[in-house]
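Lesson 9: reading folded outputs for more than one chain in a single document. The general rule is that every protein is listed as its sequence immediately followed by its structure tokens, and records are never interleaved. Here is the first one.
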Amino acid sequence: MSDPSFIPEPCDLLVRADTVVTQDDARSIFNGAGIAISDGLVMEVGDYAALDARFEPAARLDLSGRIVFPGLVNGHTHLPMTLFRGFADDMPLMEWLEDHIWPVEFQLTDAMLEIGAKIGCAELIRTGCTAFLNGYFHEEITGKAASSAGMRAVVGEGFFGFPSPHFPSAEACWQVNRKLKEHFQNDLLVRTAITPHAAFTVGPDDLTASYALAEELGIPWQIHLAESPEETAVCLEKYGKRPVALLHGLGLLSGRTTLHHCVDVTDEEIAILAETGTKVVHNPASNLKLCSGISPVQKLLDAGVVVGLGTDGASSNNQLNMFRDMALAALLGKVRHEDASALSAQSALDMATRGSAECLGWQGLGRIEKGCPADMIALDLNSPNLMPVFNPVSHAVYASTGMEVCMTMVAGEVLYLYGDYRTMDVHELRNEALQAKKWVLSKAKN
């Protein structure tokens, strides 16, 4: 007999799913599950029948026949580089940058940057990514695109040590970064970071000054580092030190620091990263395409380094699909360490959720847990490649392609549901992409 004095708790949304993979500290997985959401946060997750009896929702979302995961977090990308997808392929890093990408990049207009950022947001939403760490130019544009699409983003104004059309001097970049943080200070979806390009393109004085600025503003500091043996050779020639040693000597390795790639690192350097609390983002697809090498990720994890996962830009990956990079991370990890148990499916999912969230410096992301942001995605189990289900984590990493994502939600708001983009006009975006293609070709180096 029901208690006549019982008053159900109100909530904004009650989600029902076959399975919820929470990615909480215990890595709890609930079957016949429900998630109660209010004010953009998870109120409770657990047995659906129990939550249905406890809560009175304003709306319901039935995801029966689906597995719900936390939204994936892309720990490293350059969103507007979707403009260069397939533009320059099959060549090493420095040739790719110097002969093809940089000559066009330095001519980018705000209009082109906006189109590229919107294409990137649409792709991320479609493939189950709810937040990303970006580094590029005129980052106010990418931040606005993300916020408009309902995504979370940490954006950082990229700069080089030499004058460029974007920044005539380092001081000009510092001013832009201050204004960028001020611009987004009241935006709940967008934050900022300081983003020097790399140790071989930014001198020690500017690296140190940029880190001091990150400390002043209380925001993350991110940089490409140890991406390839060629980069190491340049650093040794310029400074007599390998990239990790160079940054460590300058006092730039800390919990504020996120390093992208870390392919060419030694055991001693891994120990330094662990000791200093420095975080690393692994970019397997990009590293493979540019033939940069394979990062020793399992060694990093074993040493206690926080490791996230990123796609890098769509010009050095051709996809912004975190599911593909999860699979590559796990498979390459086994080959790199000659151990089939290395880089397990759970480790790959951890990197794409909790690990990347730490690399963004954004607490609460990458998990479905009481009090955390209601950022989540659903995979449709009607897809034959997901039949049958023994282990949902294994399916996410090894069986899924990203195209099984049928729902993407940020802060309790559904951005994508069964083919319907609710915050973006993808039909108009197609027309804009065609305009962008013509523009890129007109600016390409002959």
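And here is the second record, again sequence then tokens.
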Amino acid sequence: MTLLQHEITDFTVSAYNNGQLQDVSKKDLLGHWSVLFFYPADFSFVCPTELEDLADHYSEFKQAGCEVYAVSCDTQWVHKAWHDSNEKIGKVNYPMLADPTATLARDLDTYNEQTGLAERGDFILDPEGHVVAYEVISSNVGRDADEILRRVKASQFVYEHSDQVCPAKWEPGEETIKPSLDLVGEL
């Protein structure tokens, strides 16, 4: 089963963001591009390296009109404690969503029933809240914010230019491909 074009279900969760606790809901994800960045757990090993990498690239995501949301099955209080005690996580200034009931993790099929944790997955959502790209990988392998950002920009391009596609390693400003009409059904 694919999650492409899946519309994220209604939700409201607590979040830790820039020293404050707040609620985040589906409506907060609408009207702009979003990345839901699932990771297994706070106070872990690979996760802080990924969240720091996203923090280092956060301004580039914002310039691209994309909000980043880190998501784990921890509570907002654990997010705050981790943010206050870890140098890498202290750099995070994007919302850290608390999903202790695994509402989001189950909706996007990243919840591991055996461990009670979210798998390492990132989901790019269009402004209407539909999944347009995603990746779920082993919990012992970290991801690269540059590649996620590249996929956001490529997804935005084809969203705005539905008659074109982006080749491998495409970056904004590079040539795209305009499929011939007789091959469009074979994409």
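What the second record shows: The radius of gyration is 17 Å.
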